[in-house]
Known about the structure:
Shape: globular
Distance between the termini: 18 Å
Number of strands: 12
Order of helices and strands: EHEHEEEHHEEHEEHEEHEH
Amino acid sequence: MxxxxxxxILSFDFDGTLVHxxxxxxxxxxxxxxxxxLRNQGAAWVINTGRSLPQTLQGLxxxxxxxxxxxxxxxxxxxxxxxxxxxxTDFGPWNKQARKAHTRFVKDxxxxxxxxREMVENQTQAQFLTGEYGExxxxxxxxxxxxxICSFIDTHVRQFxxxxxNRNGIYLRFAHSGYSKGTALSELARLLGLNASHCFAxxxxxxxxxMLHPRHACMIATPGxxxxxVKAHVQSHGGFIATRYASxxxxxxxxxxxxxxx
Length: 262
């Protein structure tokens, strides 16, 4: 059960941070015990992921994580809280604002998006995707190909700073730059009467960088399997780099930041 009045936040990316399919176990049960102990001390446990809400819930079940998070930030932006009978609902007005901003973003930057799409389709082997609900994304064939695409997108970002994107390996999703894992975490903290000094955030991939920053979380960490760019970023901001992968690395991180909390 969530703390009635949380005093701090534990925000974890899901894939590669909480779970790692190639590890044994995929999710270490001791991490679950540590999270539960900290919840008893006032923590709100948050999964902050690029997965959709249904995919996140499916992943929890798939990997045998039967604790229900206090909040889920899905699609790198949308804040959800559990309701009665485990039905998840929007928490606050943020999600509605984000959807409006995305619609405006697509309309305002149609010329740039068309240019990017033309580049992807004519100069690469990648795919430019349009989702059922207006999501726009790219799937590249290699990390190197995605690097080239991102360099081209960045030429538009420099002209229009609200053009944002979330990258995870060969996958990329466009978004208004004001709505990310980081800004969603700060909004959740605000709704709970907290701020960055009360937030712990951990992630392993490029789409986690926005929340691994002191403006959103003063306690940041990455597991041993974090990308080199993520490790360098965390180190440059005085964060913690674990030696072990995923959930075992998160046990190291929680011990580092909260080892004396009882």
